[in-house]
Amino acid sequence: MADWKVIEGGITAPKGFKSSGITAGLKPSNAPDLALIWSETEAIASGVFTTSEVRAACVDYCRQRLQDKASARAILCNAGQANAATGEQGWQDALDSASALAKELNIDANSILLASTGVIGQRIKMDAMLNAIPQLVSELSEDGGEATAKAIVTTDLVTKSIALETMIDGRPVRIGGIAKGSGMIHPNMATMLGFITCDGLVSTQLWQQMLKRAADKSFNQITVDGDTSTNDSLIALANGQSRTPAITSLDENGQKLEAMLTEVCQYLAKAIARDGEGATCLIEVEVTGASTEASARQIAKTIVGSSLVKSAIFGRDPNWGRIAAAAGRAGVPFKQEDLMIKLGDFLLMEKGQPLNFDRTSASNYLKQAAAGEYLKNDTVLISVSVGDGSSSGKAWGCDLSYDYVKINAEYTT
């Protein structure tokens, strides 16, 4: 049973954090497009970023800052322009953004991290951003979580936000998070962004390790379309304002904090997958019986990322063959005769052999029509077993609809 509870507040639920989100005129839609997350004190900072060789200026900026100094006070995020493939001027825009915000906050520019999302190849509208920074700072609030979540989205249909609380040594410790992402989602983290705040006190190295493991079990296990963005960033701040003892190892308190961090990341990751461009359902794949957790995750992600599997689910076709084929090409050895596939409670394959569809029997055999009806649910569960190993893993994605092509065909036109 989870040793935490869901609380209100999102990204500003942890003590010592404020945030804001405003309309700065960066988007043509006049929607919120500039966000700020701020810690009252210097916070331990960690990050996981895109593995793409084509990276936005903000990604290289954050990598450099975190290598030089693993702490931060603020995260500035703009929507509308990715500031990727913008050359030296895009890099200068990043530096100027941090400098202007630092002056307004009266802090060191090296304590600011950056994120951008939007159209690749477009520079940030710097005049609009610089003019909006004073308002952005003035609207910082402990109640700013929802406004901040709205200001980081692009093609998202909904905001993604969560906050959890647990007890460590008799005192509450909170983790809050927001994320954006709907298309270009296949983050080999290494257009998704995720921001995490925590008021626990944790060592620099351990916080980075926790975040990387949490990302591997969450954001690295989602796929909408198989495309990794130039801007994928997951940034986490821990400011220690809970006044709990420092966590420096994976003792009981360390494990509890990491488990809660992973839960926050998985919640946000699944919200991104469910909000995939044109999606009508969330697909969750769980693989069991593998020799290692990494192998199980690899098979699960291959299945959920298969365009044929995704298309079959959109068409309400319980096509076990596509699931089996995807599992077989995942690059993980297993015996075909050990393969078992279930769709919800419907058993499709056992011991490597498909089970016949039986339209008349009321027994445990699969009825094709009933299985097709199951695929109309908001969440579709695919269970796969590949042997008698002790490891398991999950991945999340969405179906592939006609609207996905329409949305992306019209994205910049």
TrEMBL record:
Site (Involved in the stabilization of negative charge on the oxyanion by the formation of the oxyanion hole): T117, G118
Gene Ontology terms, MF aspect: L-glutamate N-acetyltransferase activity; L-glutamate N-acetyltransferase activity, acting on acetyl-L-ornithine as donor
N-terminal signal peptide: none
Keywords from the named record: Acyltransferase, Amino-acid biosynthesis, Arginine biosynthesis, Autocatalytic cleavage, Cytoplasm, Multifunctional enzyme, Transferase
GO terms under cellular component: cytoplasm
Active-site residues, Swiss-Prot/TrEMBL: T191 (nucleophile)
EC number, as in UniProt: 2.3.1.35, 2.3.1.1
Predominant cellular place of this UniProt entry's protein: cytoplasm
Pfam families reported for this sequence: ArgJ
InterPro entries: Arg_biosynth_ArgJ (IPR002813), ArgJ-like_dom_sf (IPR016117), ArgJ_beta_C (IPR042195)
Pathway field: Amino-acid biosynthesis; L-arginine biosynthesis; L-ornithine and N-acetyl-L-glutamate from L-glutamate and N(2)-acetyl-L-ornithine (cyclic): step 1/1; Amino-acid biosynthesis; L-arginine biosynthesis; N(2)-acetyl-L-ornithine from L-glutamate: step 1/4
Keyword Acyltransferase: yes
Self-association state and partner proteins as the record states: Heterotetramer of two alpha and two beta chains.
HAMAP family xrefs: ArgJ
Family statement drawn from the similarity comment of this UniProt entry: Belongs to the ArgJ family.
The protein's name in its UniProt record: Arginine biosynthesis bifunctional protein ArgJ
Organism: Cyanobacterium aponinum (strain PCC 10605)
Gene field: argJ
